[in-house]
Description:
The protein is α/β, with parallel strands linked by helices. About 35% of the residues lie in helices and about 10% in strands. The protein has a single domain (about 10-230), classed as 3-Layer(aba) Sandwich (Rossmann fold), CATH 3.40.50. The protein is globular. It starts with 7 loop residues before the first strand and ends in a 13-residue tail after the last helix.
Amino acid sequence: MSENSKSIAVCLVSGGMDSCVATAIAKQQNDEIAFLHVSYGQRTERRERRAFNDIADFYAIEKRLDVSIEYLAKIGGSSLTDKSIEVTEADLESEEIPTSYVPFRNANMLAIATSWAEVLSADSIYVGAVFEDSSGYPDCRPEFFAAFEKTIDAGTKPETQIKIVTPIIEFSKAEIVRKGIELNAPLNLSWSCYRNEDFACGTCDSCALRLRGFEQAGEIDPIAYQKNQE
């Protein structure tokens, strides 16, 4: 518990559906939440930032921080940051790590979140990681977050106590959709597409997983897709 006896959580908010629902859970479980958005030179950077701000406005968030780590784009190695690497069509049955994996991205983001959480005397960092995503990115595994929490314990002040909370990590996309609707999360304001910033493509891994989740939940995705504009 923080010094002022109020529970404070830093929420990593990409602007996507998963972080939107994780944020709704954090809102329910804490006295105060702070929003952190980290851009890394991704293709849909502007659209994701807009989603972040829209969701922050929805929850009337006062503490919000928007930072850039575009060095990840310079490092490359991902179709999200290197335009010479194609964003592949979704293959939800594949067990291979997809080209959209950004090497060690979550560790970079968690380091920033930890710095801010320590300054705010926050108790926790909420991350909307989902192991189902694209066969499971290496830095979306529960064991990764458990290991990083030990790093936080070792690298912060003795009185600092910060937990990493991954409330939907074992959820299916359908369960995420249902939880979002249950908590009145603004799913209509979220953005998941890896390719486009106007109408979601509907065929990248992220879009396909999202659409399947809504279909399996028996719900209609409220965002606009390219196929509906043709």
